[in-house]
Design a protein that fits this description.
It comes from Helicotheca tamesis. GO terms for molecular function: heme binding; metal ion binding; oxygen binding; oxygen carrier activity. This is Globin. It contains 10 helices and no strands. It has 177 residues and is an all-alpha fold. The protein has one domain: Globin-like (Orthogonal Bundle). Helix 4 packs across helix 6 and helix 4 packs across helix 9.
Length: 177
C-alpha cells in the first residue's frame, strides 16, 4: 500500500485529511508558543495520560500501555509534542533522527477502536488545558492533527515489515529512560 493510500484510509476513518492535519504544525505563532512552550506540552501530556491510566471503563485500552510506566509515556509524548509543534528537538535528542511513529507503535495491540479511544482522551486533555481554553484555532488544529495521526498509525501499521519495528513491546536499543 502506498503512502497516499494509507493517508486516504486515515482520512476515511478520522474525517481529517493529511493536509488539514499538517496545519497544526505550521501555525503562526506556533502551538509551542501558544500553549506555553515546554511547560504547556508537559501539562498536556500529563492531562492525557492521567485520563489513559484512570480509564476504568476500558481495561483493554490501558493494557496497550503496559510496557511503559506513566512517567515514561508522559516523557516520550512531551518530547514529541514539543518538537512537532515548533519547539526544540527534544524527541530527536532522545530517540534519534527519525520520529518513526508507525514503527514505534507497531508492536502495540492497537486498531481503529483504540485510535478512537486515544483521540477521545486527547480531545478531553486539550479541552481541559487552560492555555488552550481561549484559543479555538489551536484547539481545533491539534484535534485534527491527533485524529489523523492516530488513524494513520493504525492504517500504516498493517503494512510494517519486522525490520521496521522500533519500540512497543520490544526494547528499543536507543531507549534512554
Amino acid at each position: 500500500m502506498s503512502k497516499l493510500e494509507i493517508q486516504a484510509t486515515a482520512h476515511k476513518t478520522s474525517g481529517v485529511s493529511y493536509e488539514e492535519s499538517l496545519k497544526a504544525t505550521t501555525l503562526s505563532p506556533s502551538i509551542y508558543e501558544r500553549i506555553g512552550k515546554e511547560d504547556g506540552f508537559l501539562k498536556l501530556s500529563r492531562l492525557f495520560y492521567d485520563r489513559v491510566f484512570d480509564d476504568e471503563e476500558a481495561q483493554w485500552f490501558l493494557n496497550i500501555f503496559s510496557s511503559s510506566t506513566k512517567s515514561e509515556a508522559i516523557e516520550n509524548q512531551y518530547r514529541f509534542l514539543v518538537q512537532t509543534f515548533g519547539g526544540p528537538d527534544l524527541y530527536k535528542q532522545k530517540k534519534g533522527k527519525y520520529t518513526r511513529l508507525v514503527g514505534r507503535h507497531a508492536n502495540y495491540n492497537i486498531g481503529t477502536k483504540a485510535a478512537f479511544r486515544w483521540v477521545e482522551h486527547m480531545d478531553d486533555a486539550i479541552d481541559n488545558h487552560e492555555a488552550l481554553s481561549d484559543d479555538d484555532e489551536a484547539r481545533d488544529l491539534l484535534k485534527k492533527y491527533f485524529a489523523f495521526t492516530a488513524h494513520y498509525i493504525v492504517a500504516a501499521s498493517e503494512f510494517m515489515r519486522p525490520d521496521q519495528l522500533s519500540g512497543g513491546t520490544k526494547i528499543d536499543p536507543g531507549r534512554v529512560w
